[in-house]
Amino acid sequence: MRKEPITRKIRKRVSNIQQRDGLVRNLVGDALGFMGRNSGGPSGGRIAMLHIGRCGSTVLGNMLDEENDLLWDSEALHPRVARARDLPEVRARERFDEHTFNREIRRRFIHAGKRRYGFELKTEHLELYGLTDPKEARAVLEGLGFGVFISLGRTNVVRQLVSSIRGRQVGNFHINATDRKGLKMVPVDCDLAGFRLDKVDPVMSLEEQLATRQEWMEWNREVVGEDGLHLDFEKHVMQDPSVGYRMICEHIGIKPQELEPSLRRTNPESVDHLLADPKAWRERLKGTRFEWMMDAD
Known about the structure:
Blueprint: H1 6-18, H2 23-35, E1 46-51, H3 57-64, E2 70-72, H4 78-86, H5 88-93, H6 98-112, E3 116-121, H7 123-128, H8 134-143, E4 146-153, H9 157-170, E5 175-176, H10 206-224, E6 229-232, H11 233-236, H12 241-252, E7 263-264, H13 271-274, H14 278-285
Parallel strand pairs: 1-3, 1-4, 2-3, 4-6
Antiparallel strand pairs: 5-7
Helix pairs in contact: 2-6, 3-12, 8-10
């Protein structure tokens, strides 16, 4: 039997430690951050994409990760944020502040080596670490060597919300481009007067859920600023993800490749086909700024 390379064993051991909580994990994180201080490309050239989820970030990220000189680290903070969100004892025991945010990001640079580093952030990722002011969040990211910023939103937040609910139903948010069967999902059914997506979320009405998503996008745009690239799912991803991919490449300063998207749209059907009671949704949203979204793609 062929022996496993020692370098792979070391990476596995470090990865296992990084899944834990406590002093050892923190010390390893600090060590990795120090070791990777000269990794991830030049300071000012690292890339941060802020988005709200269910807006095409994964298909774009997969295309960007095909670049030889770029490591696209997806939602690098998601595992840690999800653990802290789902386990109150972790959040009570561990520090979540600007220092630990910096450590969590710096330790990722070592994986990039001499390649440029890019990753994705959601508002909730930054809020966990106390970074609730967009100007402060921008300054912290710049202090970590990020100088290229992108926001990715979705104008139709009704469809974004429905897509989020359906993804949680089956525990899968993506469909491979070659998969013609799709995912088996039941129509969305919830109390429009108040519901939550995750057990730790606050209960909000349908209107509050939609307004919150618009607030997230506005917050992201403030962090990214006027010098950043602002993309929209409907304009730059939905019909052809290569449109958004090429715009990002131009913004980053790299030559795009001729790539086929690895994923296809998860919920292309009309909203009426995605909901258990579309009539109730229409009545609830009638006369609000969200009404038009029920008939839009």
